[in-house]
Amino acid sequence: MQQLLPLFFLALFSFPLPAQEDFRIVGYYPYYRFGLSDQINFGQLTHLNIAFANPRMDGQLDVVGQDIGPAVETGRAHGLTVLISLGGGLTAEWRAAWQLWMQPGNRAAFIHNIMGYVRAYGLDGVDMDLEGQDVDALYSPFVLQLRDSLTAEGKLLTAALPGSNRDPDITNDALKAFDWVNIMVYNLTGPWAPNNPGPHSPYSFAFSAISLWLGEGMPGERLTLGVPFYGWDFSTSPVSSFTYRAIVAQNPDNAFTDQVGQAYYNGIPTIQDKTRLAMQFVSGVMIWEIGQDSYTGYSLLNAIYETVYPPT
After folding, report:
1. Whose CA is closest to 206, among 273, 265, 269?
2. Where do the domains of the chain lie, and which CATH numbers do they carry?
3. Residue among 184, 210, 242 at smallest CA distance from 51
């Protein structure tokens, strides 16, 4: 009965399935993975989110001193829609800069700088990835003003938001401003609760996250289901993260399960199941992050791609 209720709930919000060519496969591409560009199969993505840019205290965007030009060119060479993702895990300095530049009196100048950055690199839009304590009363007014500037130049605005809750500081108008939302459906467990080991991104979480955001009024065509290419190992102290690539390198059989000892992650079958769920109720899959994949016959990105586009 517990399973039937969410199934009924999701059925209420079902919508005509997007054509295959409209299904998004969004990959986050952090600056510290740029060196893997010759191994990643960018051709199996539709969208590339370069991560992360943050303001300096002078209001200019910066990706820890990295030139994102080659990453943008890589995306372009594969026909991808390329966005710059803002935020992520903030240092104290970045947090202070965000607080300064989102103030009403500074907001316009900061957005002017963001738009200059978008133009300079020929980007297709901006992805907002402020999280947790960094989503406050300044967030929604900033999003709405940024939306206006991006719309004027035909650019996208997306966001990464949690799979477990909607922050009350995100207004309905701000939510409507996003072209789509990438739902972060991972980190149910982790180092913040070392005595509670368990799956951090089970299929059931994907199910409940989609239900949550549909219930918040987000249509399925504006939702993208996030999946992890990493896991948490509770056998270490402190609890440590690992990449899917690393766990498969230990033993290729690990690609077909979600747990090795007290190490929890998503293997190929779960990723395939989540992709099918996304194809049924939302309009894409988002990956955190593509540099964590196994560049072998056990690739999770390939599992997603071949679920959406079955080999003939």
Report:
1. 273
2. 18-308 (3.20.20.80)
3. 184
